[in-house]
Request: fold
Amino acid sequence: MLRVEKVSKHYANSVKGQITKAVDDVSLTLRQNEIFALIGESGSGKSTLAELIVGLQQPTSGSITWAEHLQVPITDRPASFIQLVFQNPDRSMNPYWRVKDIISEPLRLSKYPKKKAYSKAEELLEKVMLSADFMDRYPAECSGGQKQRIAVARALSMSPSLLVADEITSALDPTIENEMLQLLLSLKRSEGMSILYITHRLDTISGFADHVAVMKNGVIQEAGDTKTMLSDPKSDYTKALLRSLYYT
Ligand SMILES: Nc1ncnc2c1ncn2[C@@H]1O[C@H](COP(=O)(O)OP(=O)(O)OP(=O)(O)O)[C@@H](O)[C@H]1O
Ligand SMILES: [Mg+2]
Reply:
């Protein structure tokens, strides 16, 4: 569905003559209706790759194509196909807006009448398992987990084919994190979409992600089927990650 081919993003640093290879020669394929986990430590290039995929940044080299539409370059596809949810919901939510206006903003921008947009917002709240009581609340009146659900509902309003979730559970406690994973899993099934799930933790993806790629210093160290990688890791880095899980 989405093909990332030999994509690099190099930044020229403010320190003269130095460059950071945030993403370096990365290739991967995202299939339809699958959850793809991208794992890596802080600074490994995960968010940069997410922003390249969403089109917020342009690669230094390489190409990202949308196979569903016959190799259309990613920059030419309608904006709604891919939606990004950030790690910090406060970054993407206006604190002075009510939840119903936050969720229905993308619909209003695509010329939905207000009443219709609100009733759609209520449906979307239900999809992320929040009651209609949330419609009139402000972000400050919602918990971190609830805010992430609202951010997901907002992304779903555009019926994306691909949802990119960049560390959306990092700030949540394990129970709420697990509920969020269950929600994403059920959305994958009910909406038939694909999810690129970005995390620094390898221990949450078993039984959740179909495929996984492990990234370090901008380079994919290993990629493949989740079950196989967890049971039979090939790269030294993945082995070390798994060992650190079992001994902590
Ligand atoms: N605009 C920029 N200019 C220069 N360097 C950058 C820029 N954005 C990111 N970098 C560098 O690129 C590398 C990858 O950053 P990125 O944010 O993609 O990592 P990450 O894997 O998302 O980390 P985290 O888990 O902390 O979110 C880092 O070394 C970072 O310092
Ligand atoms: Mg990041």
Observations:
- The first strand starts at residue 2 and ends at 12.
- The pocket of adenosine-5'-triphosphate (ligand 1) is lined by residues 11, 20, 22, 40, 42-48, 200 (CB under 6 Å).
- The chain has a mean pLDDT of 90.
- The first helix runs from residue 46 to 54.
